[in-house]
């Protein structure tokens, strides 16, 4: 019998509003007990004093790139990156080659994940076949095979009638639709946020209104159909306002934000550094501040990374030619703690909820809580550890990071999945 | 002592007044060389310049080549056609290859905005931006400044109106930065679809009524309207553009009597400019082309050799 006793950590457990120093006893991969002064004969003791112990962090917006683009990332490399960053469970987006749009592909992914995954991996299926926005994917079969949500991420579902049907159809399986909200015609050829900086750089803009229109449409469809929708990587002031209003009148809408949109602005683009190129784009400070406000007041439920690895050769190009997206799994905790927690902007309970509990709720997972009987997935955090980001040393194959060379305060000290350490002191153990 | 030796010229944004003045001063001397019987002034003898033009260009490339040759530099022209670019070589590797041949300066035109910034992170030679997409075209900006100064005697306090497709215009941006550094009052005019009001954050005044913009103008810089833009939402037709924003002698009555008209070329006569305006007494359009060579001689000399002046006695 394998037992692990996590001793003396500060347990932050948003599901029950718990913030206290106590022990967690783990047996056979499950949490056995949570309380003060627990003891167990022969158990491995992990001294967590001075550290935060949280329910395993989740990242519901990750691109693992397999199948089809294993030069960018693989299930093996991506889940090791997650472990290194303190993330115990990720959900992988279906814009792979081929697109995950039917049950047999979900089965194939599960087979591969079981053998190569270092952390837990959930599968998000496509909304439309081949992400073409025309025909419904095999949602029923995928749901049965274990897909947790549906998304055409990377592309906005343009056709409103199709989106309506997709939302209605997915609701039969109690699965949420996740939408990448940028109205295509308005962002065609756009390279960065449209505004003063894009005007000065001569780069074609992706205006905020493109996201606003898309979010408005999705909220209205969710309201009209009475089905849930999840707004991916929200990044504009109006979109946050609209989600806030919609929630107040009971629409089933949830939203996620990324560290980059919570922390960085389009000012970072001034040197045409492709490390900062992403969709939706880094926006002006007015939008960034609105996203932070949305996180603080609960309008925004989740913090995700949109981990989107690319090869170095692809990012090492002229700005317009470089692909959008960058990695995030190994920097999200550090970035969020440094810029939101240590600046007294967002409290720890809110952060842990957004990075764990809320995501489990959105996806309907039995996770995100520390309680007897639950899987022993834990993220252990040293709030005060200072470290500098070294993208070249990432476990991920993607080395482009907007946070490279930054000094962070706060880091995952250990990642525990099913009672096993998959990362300890920065070293991935599998 | 002001010097730009060893510096790349990526754009005019952030270039201080003293450096612009230095370039204009040396360009004036270079012009006297160009105007003389013997144009050869071997100040760059033993130096090499490569023209890398990924986009078609006649006047800018010819102007740079002429400038380098008048100064006695060796020049090679590099075009994507027939080069390893077509074989899939990356931009970085192409730059490394050219650099390994021992060039002192790379003059580059690229469709992608910001490419010269990327190039500077890849290789050591001086990078001269000859136009990066819709961003900047600093030597065009400098030659416009030079032409205005030559005609008006100064730049500070002048009301300069730039008319046309500002959003896609690299000439516009370089003009704005250069003119502002020199103390001119910059106004922009064009259709709302090609001129975003956010540009006012750069300290300029934006107009959608041409007559209002032209009132009291000392200089009008007319930008080329790309025919491809008509009918796809930017404006309905060339004819309508002409009626709203075309520059004619009649329209120029709003401006100062001695208003100077510039156009970076190539012109669409009958669209953004009428023949009476481009060939009339207010126009210095042909002089701009000549000044382009002088200004590029100054830029090549000052970045490669340096100093705060030039000795043109042979």
UniProtKB/TrEMBL annotation, chain B:
GO biological process per UniProt = 'de novo' pyrimidine nucleobase biosynthetic process; 'de novo' UMP biosynthetic process; amino acid metabolic process
Tell me the residue numbers annotated for binding carbamoyl phosphate.
59-60, 109, 137, 140, 265-266
Q: Where is the Aspartate/ornithine carbamoyltransferase Asp/Orn-binding domain?
A: 156-302
**Pfam families per the UniProt record, alphabetical:** OTCace, OTCace_N
Against InterPro entries, the record matches this protein to: Asp/Orn_carbamoyltranf_P-bd, Asp/Orn_carbamoylTrfase, Asp/Orn_carbamoylTrfase_sf, Asp_carbamoyltransf, Asp_carbamoyltransf_Asp/Orn-bd
Q: Which Gene Ontology cellular component annotation is one that this UniProt entry carries? A: cytosol
Q: Which domain of life is it from?
A: Bacteria
Q: Recite the UniProt keywords alphabetically.
A: Pyrimidine biosynthesis, Transferase
Which pathway features in its UniProt record? Pyrimidine metabolism; UMP biosynthesis via de novo pathway; (S)-dihydroorotate from bicarbonate: step 2/3
PROSITE patterns registered for this protein in UniProt = CARBAMOYLTRANSFERASE
- Tell me which residues bind L-aspartate: 87, 170, 224
Q: E.C. number, please?
A: 2.1.3.2
UniProt domain Aspartate/ornithine carbamoyltransferase carbamoyl-P binding: residue ranges: 7-150
- Any one Gene Ontology molecular-function term assigned to this protein's record: amino acid binding
Q: Which reaction does it catalyse?
A: carbamoyl phosphate + L-aspartate = N-carbamoyl-L-aspartate + phosphate + H(+)
Phosphoprotein listed as a keyword: no
| Similarity comment: family membership | Belongs to the aspartate/ornithine carbamoyltransferase superfamily. ATCase family.
Subunit comment for this entry? Heterododecamer (2C3:3R2) of six catalytic PyrB chains organized as two trimers (C3), and six regulatory PyrI chains organized as three dimers (R2).
Purpose of the protein: Catalyzes the condensation of carbamoyl phosphate and aspartate to form carbamoyl aspartate and inorganic phosphate, the committed step in the de novo pyrimidine nucleotide biosynthesis pathway.
Instruction: Give the NCBIfam families listed for this entry.
Output: asp_carb_tr, PRK00856.1
- What is this protein's record name? Aspartate carbamoyltransferase
Q: Record the organism.
A: Megasphaera cerevisiae DSM 20462
């Amino acid at each position: 019998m394998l037992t692990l006793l996590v001793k003396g950590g500060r347990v932050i457990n948003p599901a029950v509003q718990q913030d206290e120093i106590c022990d967690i006893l783990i047996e056979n991969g499950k949490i056995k007990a949570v309380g003060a002064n627990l003891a167990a004969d022969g158990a491995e003791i992990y001294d967590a004093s001075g550290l935060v112990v949280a329910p395993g962090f989740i990242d519901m917006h990750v691109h693992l790139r397999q199948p089809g683009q294993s030069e960018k990332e693989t299930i093996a490399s991506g889940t090791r990156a997650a472990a290194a960053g303190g993330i115990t469970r990720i959900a992988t987006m279906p814009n792979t080659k081929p697109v995950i749009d039917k049950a047999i592909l979900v089965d194939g992914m599960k087979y591969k994940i079981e053998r190569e995954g270092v952390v837990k991996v959930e599968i998000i299926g496509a909304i439309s076949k081949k992400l073409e926005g025309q025909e419904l994917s095999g949602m029923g079969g995928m749901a049965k095979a274990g897909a947790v949500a549906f998304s055409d991420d990377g592309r906005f579902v343009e056709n409103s009638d199709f989106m309506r049907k997709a939302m209605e159809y997915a609701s039969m399986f109690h699965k949420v639709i996740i939408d990448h909200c940028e109205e295509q015609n308005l962002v065609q050829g756009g390279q960065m946020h449209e505004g003063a900086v894009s005007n000065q750089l001569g780069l074609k803009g992706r205006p905020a209104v493109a996201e606003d229109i898309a979010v408005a449409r999705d909220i209205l469809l969710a309201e009209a159909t009475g089905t849930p929708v999840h707004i991916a990587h929200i990044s504009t002031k109006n979109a946050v306002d609209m989600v806030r209003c919609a929630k107040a009148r009971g629409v089933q809408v949830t939203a996620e934000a990324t560290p980059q949109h919570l922390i960085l602005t389009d000012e970072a683009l001034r040197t045409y550094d492709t490390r900062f190129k992403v969709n939706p784009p880094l926006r002006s400070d007015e939008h960034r501040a609105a996203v932070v406000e949305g996180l603080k007041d609960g309008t925004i439920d989740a913090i995700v990374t949109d981990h989107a690895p690319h090869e170095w050769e692809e990012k090492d190009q002229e700005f317009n030619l470089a692909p959008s997206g960058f990695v995030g799994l190994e920097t999200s905790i550090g970035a969020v703690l440094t810029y939101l927690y240590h600046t007294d902007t967002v409290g720890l309970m809110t952060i842990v909820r957004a990075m764990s509990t809320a995501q489990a709720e959105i996806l309907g997972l039995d996770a995100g809580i520390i309680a007897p009987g639950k899987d022993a997935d834990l993220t252990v955090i040293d709030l005060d550890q200072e470290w500098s980001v070294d993208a070249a040393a990432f476990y991920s194959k993607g080395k482009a990071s907007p946070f490279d060379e930054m000094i962070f305060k706060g880091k995952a000290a250990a990642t525990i999945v099913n009672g096993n350490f998959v990362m300890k002191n920065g070293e991935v153990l599998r | 002592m002001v010097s730009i030796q060893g510096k790349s010229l990526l754009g005019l944004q952030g270039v201080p007044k003293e450096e612009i003045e230095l370039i204009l001063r040396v360009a004036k001397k270079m012009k006297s060389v160009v105007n003389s019987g013997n144009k050869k002034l071997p100040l760059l003898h033993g130096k090499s310049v490569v023209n890398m033009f990924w986009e078609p260009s006649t006047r800018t490339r010819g102007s740079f080549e002429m400038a380098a040759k008048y100064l006695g530099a060796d020049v090679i022209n590099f075009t994507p056609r027939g080069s390893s670019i077509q074989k899939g070589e990356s931009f970085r590797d192409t730059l490394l290859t050219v650099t390994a041949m021992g060039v002192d300066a790379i003059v580059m035109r690229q469709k992608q905005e910001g490419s010269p910034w990327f190039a500077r992170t890849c290789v050591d030679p001086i990078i001269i931006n000859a136009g990066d997409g819709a961003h900047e075209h600093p030597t065009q900006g400098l030659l416009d400044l030079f032409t205005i100064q030559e005609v008006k005697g100064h730049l500070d306090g002048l009301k300069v109106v730039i008319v046309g497709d500002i959003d896609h215009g690299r000439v516009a941006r370089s003009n704005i930065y250069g003119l502002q550094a020199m103390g001119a009052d910059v106004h922009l005019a064009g259709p709302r679809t090609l001129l975003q009001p956010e540009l006012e954050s750069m300290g300029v005044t934006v107009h959608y009524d041409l007559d209002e913009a032209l009132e009291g103008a000392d200089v009008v810089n007319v930008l080329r309207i790309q025919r491809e833009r008509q009918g796809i939402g930017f404006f309905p037709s060339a004819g309508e553009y002409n009626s709203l924003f075309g520059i004619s002698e009649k329209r120029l009555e709003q401006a100062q009597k001695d208003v100077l008209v510039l156009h970076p070329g190539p012109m669409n006569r009958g669209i953004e400019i009428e023949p009476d305006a481009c060939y009339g007494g207010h126009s210095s359009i042909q002089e701009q082309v000549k000044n382009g060579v002088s200004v590029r001689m100054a830029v090549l000399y000052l970045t490669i050799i340096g100093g705060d002046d030039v000795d043109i006695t042979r």
